Prior knowledge:
Blueprint: H1 2-5, H2 8-25, H3 29-35, H4 40-47, H5 67-80, H6 82-101, H7 104-116, E1 121-124, E2 140-144, E3 147-158, E4 165-171, E5 179-185, E6 191-193, E7 207-218, E8 222-223, H8 229-266, E9 268-269, E10 272-273, H9 278-306, H10 312-337, H11 347-356, H12 365-377, H13 384-390
Parallel strand pairs: 1-4
Antiparallel strand pairs: 2-3, 3-7, 4-5, 5-8, 6-7, 9-10
Amino acid sequence: MSTYFTEPRHDDLRASVRAFAEGEVRPLLPELEATRTVNHDLSRRIAQQGWLGVTVDEEHGGMGAGHLAKTIIIEELSRVCGAMGAMVQASQLGVAKIIHFGDDAQRKTWLPKVASGEVLPTIAVTDPASGGHVLGMQGTAVRDGNDYVLNGRKVFVGNSHVGDLHGVVLRTGEGSRGLSAFLVESDRPGFRLEPQQEAMGLHGFSFGELVFDQCRIPEGNRLGDEGQGLAVAYSSSMLYGRPNLTAVSLGIHQAIVEESVRLCRERERYGKPLGQLGPVGIKLGQMQSRLMTARLTAYQAVSMLDQGLSCDAELMNAKVVNVESALDSARAAMEIHAATGLFTDCPLERYLRDAFHIFAPAGTSDVQWLRLGEVALGTAKGSWSEQLAEWPV
């Protein structure tokens, strides 16, 4: 299945990311789980591999390798550590807004720094009071001469506590055309972070709160035109967020299956390996089937995106299939592991916690199904993937 979509360069990339993940990330898992906070050094080391620039063109110092390559990078990191896969996927949201909405000066300034790992970008859209209702946001950016003054809070910001450059969507007017996007450096006066809160899973990753209090930025930090903030938010979420989170789920799913297979080979019951027991073998078969189907939907969707084809529905389907499949396989794996799966020295306990974190961002499963229902009815509105193909890169 993989060879249908991939080329030798993808296989080489997978091998290099897997080697890094096994050698550099896996030894740090106990520390990440114990501290339950971001690891700045590891995040920076991953960024310095150049992987944040996988979709950045070579002219700006990136790999120019596309979305399938991005999926493989995130998948392989997530197979070992969901938190570090999440770190890379969240950075890619920050990359997207500069690629597609940045002017020449912004691209020349920031994309090479992102590609080299010098700068970790984020995107900050969600207000505390409005949640997923983007148009309900209350944070403001008010023009003052050649500057904007920013006030408000953003929550659930991926890479909040390791990010250097925050892409922030705020209200500059009324209605759907009253949102605009801005680049805010983390050392700007008037910007601060709230303390990182401990979360159920993804230990080593941060998705915290940003505060803007009379934060002044120059007009040159605006992304696109005034009124394009909704497009920045939606396009980043739909064209990068959904496939990126798909990749995190896929990597975790792979790890779930591998850990279950290991247990079924090593543990014996009734004088034979656990995996040879009929009910256990059925569960393993179901898990393997889910994993194969999930990978197929993931690779198909991003391959279409790389080709500039209309694939909004495929991206939505890939996200919901991968998230739900990973959660279903995690539950089945827990049933195979029984009580041993509940202890923190069992990797499966971490995989289950991490998998739940991928459910809500870029739209819950219900959101994906609602939108896919519109596709079925022929009432879907527009195609962000078609617009992406038309934007200069």
